[in-house]
Design brief:
The structure is a homodimer. By secondary structure, chain A is an alpha+beta fold. Chain A has 2 domains: 163 residues, 60s Ribosomal Protein L30, Chain: A (2-Layer Sandwich); 72 residues, CofE-like domain (CofE-like fold). In chain A, the strands form 4 sheets. A 5-stranded mixed beta sheet of chain A has the order 1-12-2-8-9. A 3-stranded antiparallel beta sheet of chain A has the order 4-5-6. In chain A, strands 3-7 form a two-stranded antiparallel sheet. In chain A, a hairpin with a 4-residue loop joins β5 and β6. Chain A is globular and about 55 Å long. Chains A and B meet through β1, β9, β11 and α6 of A and β1, β9, β11 and α6 of B.
Chain lengths: 250, 250
């Protein structure tokens, strides 16, 4: 029977642009007595990837549009931040009161295009999501392999959701394993097709990882050990992103 | 640093009405060498609770309404099942094509009011969600305490969600711990308030548990060990259920 171990990787240095993330994770994990091993799922918070990839925006460099300016004034927001949120989005899903739910260029539906005003290193700066999370994960996975560990890599972020209070961590990038586990065509012991057709294990792994990372403890990386998956070099988040045409809430 | 162990509890007998679930879980866990201990979070799939609580509906006993009959004919569904779905709901959130997203009497938003046509023991029968999942969890928690283990109990189900393909397990009942972990008023090392205000750890624990339960392996119970929580005798899912007035997607 499956048995998982979930632990955080702490002791990383302050992250800056251009750093070798996989190397730092391998070293930090070894230093705490938990060397990364084949079959691990390594879960990296998007924020540190954004820092490594220089996805910082200096607010002084941002010229807000009229649209951003007007809405921001109404709701007492920084129009430069609003401008960045709009630039990071391909459509607005809800704009009700001070809330702005957008679909990002990647296809993620979330508040404020995932733009992070907290802990970006200094006031006057904000962090945007990595440009191509799947591609980052593939590169990180290749780097882990160079360093001796055949792992899957998942990039995570903390998103809200309709209907329920409280945010959860979900996957925004993946490499090395399919984000979905399918039961399509399988039957239960009584011959019924399963009501559950596909599980988004990538999101469940992201959630499991959040439980050990927390948001105040400054542990931006976690490992899930013992989760069985088929290695898949072509994996991406694409199958998780529901087509707008199939979606009832966009 | 937090370190979690997540494992399934297998070897439970076929579940029937009136069984002592906590007793069976304690015995099965001990039998597999994983006795339940103080501080464990025990996660129980709603389906077995529904069976214990006799939430089976015999379809032959169901008289569909005209509304249920007409819609079911259009979409080639069993009108008796539709009738049960409607009875289990307090409002319809979306009814588009063959899809019926409802809000249950408990306040959960999901497909088909969580009615389960698979593995309910026989064709011609379906399972509905437990009537009062929080109250069940409280009773189970008290029973675990009698049996010597001070645990939190979470009841889980597998729900879809807007925007993303693949379902995930979430919490529908809880006892012994707050379902939310709050960061409100806390600040990051740079003095910014956290963007993340509240994490729904109950849902994240449910997702972690699903990774070891799976849906075909017939492991309806999992344990998360090592998760720190404040024991809370008054906990319930109520704070997770967003008020319809605050919700942008109902």
């Amino acid at each position: 029977m499956t048995r998982l171990e979930v632990f955080g990787v702490g002791g990383l240095p302050e992250i800056t642009e251009g750093m070798d993330l996989a190397r730092m994770i391998v070293d930090a994990a070894a230093a705490q007595g938990d060397p990364i091993v084949d079959g691990d799922v390594v879960l990296v918070t998007s924020k540190i990837v954004s820092k490594v990839e220089g996805r910082t925006v200096e607010l002084d460099d941002v010229e807000p549009s009229d649209f951003a300016r007007r809405w921001s004034t109404t709701w007492d927001k920084d129009p430069r931040v609003t401008e960045v949120v709009l630039r990071e989005s391909k459509r607005i899903i809800r704009q009700i009161g001070p809330v702005l739910i957008t679909e990002t260029h990647h296809g993620f539906c979330c508040a404020n295009s995932g733009v992070d005003q907290s802990s970006s290193g200094a006031h006057g700066r904000i962090l945007t999501l990595p440009l191509d999370p799947d591609s980052t994960c593939r590169a990180q996975r290749a780097r882990f392999a160079q360093l001796g560990a055949d792992v899957a890599v998942i990039m995570t972020d903390t998103f809200g959701r309709p209907w329920r209070e409280g945010q959860t961590d979900i996957a925004i990038g993946i490499a090395g394993m399919d984000p979905l586990r399918s039961y399509i065509g399988q039957h239960d012991p009584h011959g019924h097709e399963f009501r559950v057709q596909e599980i988004c294990s990538a999101d469940e792994l992201a959630s499991a990882a959040e439980l050990v990372k927390g948001n105040t403890s400054r542990v931006p990386v976690a490992v899930v050990r013992g989760y069985e998956f088929e290695p898949d070099d072509d994996a991406s988040m694409a199958p998780v992103l529901r087509d707008a045409e199939r979606d009832l809430f966009r």
